[in-house]
Amino acid sequence: MGLGKFVEVGRVIKINYGPQEGKLATIVEILNDKRVLIDGPTTGVQRQVIPIRRLTLTKFNLKGATRGARTGVITKAIKKNDPFTQYQNTIAAKKVAKKALRAKLTDFDRFRVMILRKRRSALLSTQLKALRKNNAGGKSAAQAKGGNKKK
Amino acid sequence: MPAKKRTVRIGNWYKSDDENVHFVRKRKAPRPAKLRKIVPGQVLILLAGRFQGKRVVFLKQLKSGLLLVTGPFKINGVPLKRVNSAYVIPTSTKVDVNGVNAGQVDDDYFKRTQAQRRKNEQGFWAKRGELTAEQQAAEKTRLDGKRKTQKSIDDALIAAVKKTPLLKQYLGARFSIGKTTRPHELVF
């Protein structure tokens, strides 16, 4: 457990709880050890005070966010360097997006996904078979022969 | 002076002891069930009966309130069938039914014929397989007519189904719930 992400002005956070669940915002001011002032003009989060308990910190920072900066200043800083789109490219964000997409699948979609997965797995297994055959001249040859004898 | 007669209303009908009156429906004609946003051409999942789990195309609502539905027969073995809308899950998948004419099918199409009720006519001890020659001929024409109607409706449907990739296989497959599926979270 090293020095990871800090609660600081400009830290991009994700809201975990409440009506704004799932949205991103930036920390604008730290009020005390439990509450911060956040703002997310481009992500639909109104400037508000929120307990730190309801947030998770991301590894991104908004450059140019100063303590107590107003929404206009924040918006300008986002225009210059947008950490929110950078966050959407992370694996964590993509997982969340995938989960949301899967929840929306209709019965027909689920059927199509099943068929496509089967096709993909069939393609993979034929490729794998071909590779195994090519490598039969190597150290796995003896094992393969031994396996065949067992049959 | 004659005493004033006290009129007591006495019913004309007294039920005898051994008469067993079953539930008598007060409303003679069935009220057609209100269709909860099911549209002709929509794919439905049947939940009960021999074809439970089968995905089926909805054609129209009949006067009795039941839904007229077909497999199509060639795809999943479900013929023209009446189905109660309570035992059905409507999915969001729709098939184009503009070319399909189900106008000639109604509740009478599904009525049992004389030949089908022959057992009751001939009595308990009569052999069940026996039909007179005329009855057999009548049965044959009746069934041929039914096959014709089925075919005419299905051919138009199958042509529409083939336009969407994998839709034919989808209709041929049954719906089932596995260990990890959460039906209340599924979007149909």
UniProtKB/TrEMBL annotation, chain A:
Alphabetical list of PANTHER family matching this protein: 60S RIBOSOMAL PROTEIN L14 (PTHR11127), LARGE RIBOSOMAL SUBUNIT PROTEIN EL14 (PTHR11127:SF2)
The answer to keyword Acyltransferase applying to this record is no
Q: Keyword set for this entry?
A: Ribonucleoprotein, Ribosomal protein
GO molecular function annotations of the record: RNA binding; structural constituent of ribosome
Q: Where is the Large ribosomal subunit protein eL14 domain?
A: 46-120
Q: Which cellular components does GO assign to this protein?
A: cytosolic large ribosomal subunit
Question: Does the record carry GTP-binding as a key word?
Answer: no
Q: Which residues form the KOW domain?
A: 9-39
Q: Which GO terms describe its biological process?
A: ribosomal large subunit biogenesis; translation
Q: Its domain of life?
A: Eukaryota
The protein's name is 60S ribosomal protein L14
UniProtKB/TrEMBL annotation, chain B:
Which molecular function terms from Gene Ontology are attached?
RNA binding; structural constituent of ribosome
Annotated GO biological processes are: cytoplasmic translation; ribosomal large subunit assembly
Tell me which UniProt keywords the record has, alphabetically.
Ribonucleoprotein, Ribosomal protein
Task: Give the record's GO CC terms.
Answer: cytosolic large ribosomal subunit
CDD domains noted in UniProt: KOW_RPL6 (cd13156)
The entry's family comment says: Belongs to the eukaryotic ribosomal protein eL6 family.
Mind telling me what this protein is named?
60S ribosomal protein L6
Which species is listed as the source?
Paramecium primaurelia
Q: What is the lineage of its organism?
A: Eukaryota, Sar, Alveolata, Ciliophora, Intramacronucleata
